[in-house]
Specification:
mainly alpha
């Protein structure tokens, strides 16, 4: 039972787990924020926001596009494998809306985390415990719940969600450590 729950959790989240890794490999190019800062904006009291970049150089249009595309393509490939796996483990097929929501939601979660990092004075690559490990999960799940509600409710049962929130930080730290060891990342987190 636990093994099947873990298998379903990993399978269902693969389209969200892959995009940020692909973005690291395919990134570069024009930053989403265009190099802009928030220094020209003020709050209702006229106090200037910080002068940090909105997102930073690590969030690019190319990385976002390639990451999202990779997650969607992976979901479509998993759909082809699902009939062979479903006899052993009850893994789901991915409707296109769920595939896009999982993949793009993962990228959006990472972008939002970058925004939060800049607002809290953290530079690119600085650790942000908790946020670094779960940002993409929370946003991808939320977006999927909105655009593919029936599939989300059928797939992400409470035990599957628990498995995701327990496994993801471990997987995140492990894969980032490997990427760092292979010189693909400047920091091991």
């Amino acid at each position: 039972m636990v093994a099947e729950t873990v298998a379903i959790a990993v399978w269902a989240m693969l389209p969200a787990y892959v995009p940020n890794n692909v973005a690291v490999l395919a990134g570069g190019g024009r930053p989403i924020d265009g190099g802009r800062t928030l220094d020209k904006l003020t709050d209702e009291d006229g106090v200037l926001y910080d002068e940090n970049r909105i997102l930073g150089d690590g969030k690019t249009w190319r990385g976002t596009a390639f990451g999202t595309a990779a997650g969607v393509v992976l979901a479509l490939l998993l759909n082809q494998l699902q009939p062979f796996v479903a006899g052993t483990v009850g893994v789901p097929q991915f409707p296109i809306a769920a595939a896009v929501a999982l993949a793009f939601g993962a990228m959006l979660g990472d972008i939002l985390a970058s925004f939060l990092k800049r607002r809290t004075g953290r530079q690119r690559g600085a650790a942000f415990p908790g946020v670094d490990q779960l940002d993409f999960v929370i946003v991808s799940l939320a977006l999927t719940a909105i655009v593919a509600t029936g599939w989300f409710l059928a797939t992400f049962t409470l035990p599957v969600l628990v498995a995701i929130f327990v496994l993801t930080p471990v997987l995140h730290v492990s894969t980032n450590g490997l990427a760092y060891a292979f010189g693909l990342k400047d920091e091991p987190w």
